[in-house]
Amino acid sequence: PEAITVQELANRMAEKAADLVKALFKMGVMVTLNHTIDQDTAELLVTEFGHNIQRVSDNDVDIDHSADVDAEDTLKARPPVVTIMGHVDHGKTSLLDALRGTDVVKGEAGGITQHIGAYQIKTKSGDLITFLDTPGHEAFTEMRMRGANVTDIVILVVAGDDGLMPQTIEAINHTKAAGVPMIVAITKSDKPEFNPQKIRERLLEHEIIVEQMSGDVQDVEVSAKTGAGLETLIEKILLQAELMELKANPDRAAEATVIEAKLDKGKGPLATVLINRGTLKVGDILVVGTQSGRVRAMLDDKGRQVKVAPPALPVEVLGVGGVPMAGDTLTVVESEARAREVAAFRQEQATAKRTTTAPASLENMFSALA
Ligand code: GDP
Ligand code: MG
């Protein structure tokens, strides 16, 4: 594996070298600007700063996005992508269902609700919000380890009749490591044992100071059962999103991230993807992980056929040659020949890697961080 100096990596990432040194320090790696770091550490850093990992050095066959940055004037506002995390049984699934129930488009859809790993709602104000429907920090962490930073905002769910539990703390740590802003939802407010103040105080021990404690982390009391607080939670998500000025270029070849994928007996391989930038269209030729294909059809979470998918829309894609992996990037390419060439190259690489390397050290490094 290659090594690179901290300074050189900073230059390539267009980040301040001092910020990289700081981030490395937090990982327990003490270096100065001229020190070299190994490839795995470099990849972790790149991910940490929210960039995509590109190993351009080992080939010129694969797709290189590193020089492919969208110009400022091509960027347009896009909806936020939200992940819900928290301890088991604290009400993540119930909250996701309740939020889904607030969709103003729901009534007119006519299709059948699909569980495709993500859904998008239209709020009363007409704004769009995308929710990843796979709660839990495992999915979040796995995606990040694969270089996919799809989440803009984390909702930390804590049951107000319980307390901070092990998975609550893990979720806090993962969210902090990812540098993703958090909104605390203290749920089950309908229960007699509900004691949100206790939760707010316990959060202080983890350096989370919520608004109610004069901090700047938004918090809200909700009940998935009665619907109390849902509108406030939605307002807070939109406020957070506005502060972040989330943007993407919709007018280019699409790039998307696989949220989940499976083999359907009738339809063949199905991949749920979230569009990162560009617009995915029926007929587009694509490479996704080690697979190639052509978009035959797209379905949204309401089971409706979609002809074009803009940034932050989750869609199920039909027409991929095989089942890709969660976290894989989908890229639209110009020709089938090119798609097959890249897919074949990646398959070769994957086989070579399986036979020559030890378990990924990226994973070890991540658990050291948490
Ligand atoms: P998850 O494991 O975090 O996905 O939690 P679930 O959504 O499956 O909820 C766990 C349990 O808490 C279920 O029995 C739910 O019915 C219950 N629950 C979830 N939210 C609420 C709520 O707001 N109020 C009440 N009373 N019960 C809730
Ligand atoms: Mg659940």
From TrEMBL:
Residues 77-247 form the Tr-type G domain. It comes from the Bacteria. It is found in: Cytoplasm. GTP binds at residues 86-93, 133-137. One of the essential components for the initiation of protein synthesis. Protects formylmethionyl-tRNA from spontaneous hydrolysis and promotes its binding to the 30S ribosomal subunits. Also involved in the hydrolysis of GTP during the formation of the 70S ribosomal complex. Belongs to the TRAFAC class translation factor GTPase superfamily. Classic translation factor GTPase family. IF-2 subfamily. This is Translation initiation factor IF-2. It comes from Novosphingobium umbonatum. The gene is infB. The chain holds residues 315 to 684 of 892 of the full protein.
